[in-house]
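#struct-pred

JT: dropping the chains for the assembly here, can someone run the whole complex?
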Amino acid sequence: MKAYKFKFWHYGLLVTLAIGSVVAYNLEFSDKTLFISGETSHGHHQIELACSSCHGDGFSGPEAMQQACVSCHADELELANDSHPRKKFLDPRNAPLLAHLDARQCVTCHAEHKPEITRSMGVTLAGDFCFHCHNDIAEDRSSHKDFAFDSCASAGCHNFHDNSTLYEDFLIAHVGQPELQPNAQLPARTAMQSWLRENPHERSLQLQEADLGEENFPAEIAAAWAQSAHARVAVNCSGCHADGQLQFSSREIVAQCGSCHSEQREAFTRGKHGMRLATQLPEDFAAKTTAMSPQQARLPMHADASGELSCASCHSPHETDLQFAAVEACLGCHSDEHSLAFKESAHFKSWSAGADDGVSCASCHLPRERHGERVVVNHNQNHNLRPNDKMLPVCLNCHGAEFALAALSDRKLIAHNFNRRPAVEHETFDLIRDRIARIANSKSTQ
Amino acid sequence: MRINAFTAAILSVATAGLLTACGQKQGIAPERMADAIFAVIEADRASYTNNVVNRLQNEEKVIKADEHWKDNKALPLPAQMMRMGAERVAEQESGFTYALLSLWAINKQNKPRTELEKQGLEFIIDNPGQNFYGSETLGDTQYFTAIYPDVAVSPACVSCHNDHIDSPRTDFELGETMGGVVIRIPL
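RK: done, full complex below.
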């Protein structure tokens, strides 16, 4: 029998088919990792395999990409009273400016998969981007004539999107405050008080009322539950363990908790801890992907930190110990310089002593926000770090604005977790004092 | 037979032409459309300035109007109110855009930027009561551009602009043209 003689193109065909099969399998049935064109930014790497959440069907145009950005980030921009919203650039008189910098599209400044040019806040433009439209600023503000354009948005003075605590009138109203305010403390949470007010006749559930059946759970779990806020607000075992389900995946935990704590779930799934569990991600991604784990993070984590991130990572479901959630839950995973230095800080010492002005990790990173009469804990721990001077409202509960803004602009001080006073005062307040003098002078001459 | 076929062909072409003509909308001249849009903008703007801001802030002193109206629980300034509408219209791609500009804008982003804007704003200042019409090309689109005088209709307009630290002009008087409303319709 004559052996078949392979020609060169036969080998070529076989190799092409083999490569094609691997690539096709990766795209259709596996995790699509072969199609990542470059390392994603720190804000998106958690969901980088949810390709269609940004790219649609792969053939979507720029408008669909823009919609994808907006579908996740619109609420945050609205809340920040975005200084440069898309709608501001739709007037045709902006056409010459847009030819330089198309500020209507998020990707103009935030291109993904470009690690070599990605800077803080996922910005992929050169740091002096303000120049494109504000190059004549010194004509209106002579005080700015010596400032470099790459310092506008990097020195704690201005942000492109969120200037809600950096605008002139706000700073004027907060100038000259003492470093430490009298009555320094965070606002008290209001959820439990509101519930008790609205349900005056509802009594706490007792240990013997646990409805799951004693044979189904250890006694210490029932005892912890009986002392918890859940028992106080009449949430029995079956409130979470419907149909007797005892084991939950991270996704199920977040969904279960979120059925009552919807604001918290919404915020949690907007931050890096929980964004893989966001409901707007594609179904096939949700089916193939688990929640984030500490070892998948880009920040330094303890080698033994493990498990998937869900509500239960910080809040033991039966004890609901908020003290644990406020510090030890964080330090159990995070091992960066800032986290490791926390227990040496005045903030922590005061907190661990039970003082009113004590500061835990959660005090700053899970801030208590006023929504009308309510004080709600924002469970998106990244919200006030984008960029970090968005944390100013938290600091102002205890500190004056000049002290706080100087601290938030001092990178070394942040790394050492505020173990000393800020090294220098923030120059923005010198400009504010000049401005106040000019306004007073102008009024006296009228 | 040949004549009949020819006549039928002529008739069918003529009928098709007539039907097409009837089906076409006649449309409104850009100038007329811009005038009508301005009438609405001006009416809303004057009503808000007089009956809301001037009454509540200057006369009854119930609530202030402030640039940071959300934070300070105040009324939006009349100029902000108008720009909110302009941005909403632009987002809806309604077939036209409008803007409030001035040679003496407090926010320098609202100074004239195109040649036609400069020309038009100077024209309406020099010719009180008259409008300015022209056309210009911005990007790759040609626009019919109309500029209408924006007149100080209430004491609130005058006092706020004359007292503001960043105002380049501090001697406005009631009834004076302070700026212009620019309406653009793509052609």
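JT: nice. Chain A has 24 helices and two strands. The two ends of chain A are 111 Å apart (CA to CA).
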